[in-house]
Amino acid sequence: MSKYKPEFKAQIVGLYNQGQGVTYLSKTYEITPSLIYRWINDAKENKTVDNFDDEQMVPIAEYNKVKREHEKVKKEIEIWKAALELINKKIKVMISRQHTFCFDYD
């Protein structure tokens, strides 16, 4: 089984095709240059690397940033849900107390 996902391989090949050097990519993503060259050749032969359009390519740093933001928003939603649940409970208690102290003066 491959250590790297096809999307990641395609990302690296896409960066190479956009002008990034193999040495730079190797150092930045901690991948051996020979592996990057293999992915490039595989992409040319349409073997293992999925071919994505340039429009579908997103820099990994941007992807990771969006992923972190997504996780943060999910946590915030859970906090808001818990707060709303607590507020609803307090409102129900207030309403029930209000009914117990209502007097009918007819």
UniProtKB/TrEMBL annotation:
Residues 63-90 form a coiled coil. GO terms for molecular function: DNA binding; transposase activity. Keywords: Coiled coil. Pfam families: HTH_Tnp_1. The keyword Disulfide bond does not apply. InterPro entries: Homeodomain-like_sf, Transposase_8, WH-like_DNA-bd_sf. It comes from the Eukaryota. The keyword Coiled coil applies. Transmembrane segments: none annotated. GO terms for biological process: DNA transposition. This is Transposase. It comes from Streblomastix strix.
